[in-house]
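Hi, does anyone understand the following?
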Amino acid sequence: MVDFNARSANERLGVLICGHGSRNRLAVEEFAQMVEALRPRLAPLPVEHGYLEFARPVLREGLDALRAQGVDRILAIPAMLFAAGHAKNDIPSVLNTYTAETGLPIDYGRELGVDRLMVAAAGARIQEALDSAGDEIPLSETLLVVVGRGSSDPDANSNVAKVTRMLVEGFGFGWGETVFSGVTFPLVEPGLRHLVRLGFRRVVVAPYFLFSGVLVSRIRQHTERVAEDHPSIEFLSAGYLGDHPKVVETFRERVDEVIRGDTAMNCSLCKYRAQVLGFEQDVGRAQESHHHHVEGLAESCTLCELECTGACQPDGIPIPMHHHGDHDHSGHNHDHGHHHPVYPHADHPLGPRSLGSSDSLRTP
């Protein structure tokens, strides 16, 4: 483990924890609480945080706060479970721009990723759900369903599936499957409706999310709908990761890695660097952020109360393409000069309707 006191004698380092941001006040508060829990683990290094969108401080404000404290170098850690567009493009774009403007060097760390500590934290949440169950059902007759956020990056989606398998083997569940809250397939509700056919007596639904928010609430709503239709099956909802001590320790390890210079990103399956099956059109795509127009914005659309979609597709609830005046929710297209490539499986029957074209919307 790196001695931060020894390092600070040679140069003034500062740490920026880079979050996505949320319109959900509780989620933003939980993120800030996690940063507070991390501060004593990184002392004496100053620690700030910032968000890509929908909350303050934005990333630039967090960087300014560290610069005002006289740091010579910033270590930026993406508070992302897996490396997809936000970790690979959006955050680096903001950081690179800031360095170009100020000359302040920023070293970028890696995402939390598939990590023994993160798997252990998820396992602790699942165990809490099992302990709360009123009856004794063997693990061999229990199905684990891990819910990932969902991404247009197959590398990130496959990592959720790996976490699922590690949890299934770690506990000895009878079966395990992975579903997603949005962007890709299968979505939570149609996925669960397929899985109940397997005949397991108990289903544990575990949201692999860092914090609360609209997505976690909707996962529970989808689960409750399926549970109502299948009263003979016991459904348990595990808690999200939150500021579990092992999550906080993972952030500490990511800072250690940057200081040691051994940050290892997975580039062999990165769709922006290699020709990944089905995503060849993304190779070499420009590294740019599409969040600049919503930095710090905390209000949802007052006309339809929908979150923006596109590369940040928020959920598995079908969102038809429509316009309210000049505000278009049909693909994060606010006419800001940025465009997202078409997701190759936009019309998958178990995926969000909001990904497809307007003439291919399906009836729920």
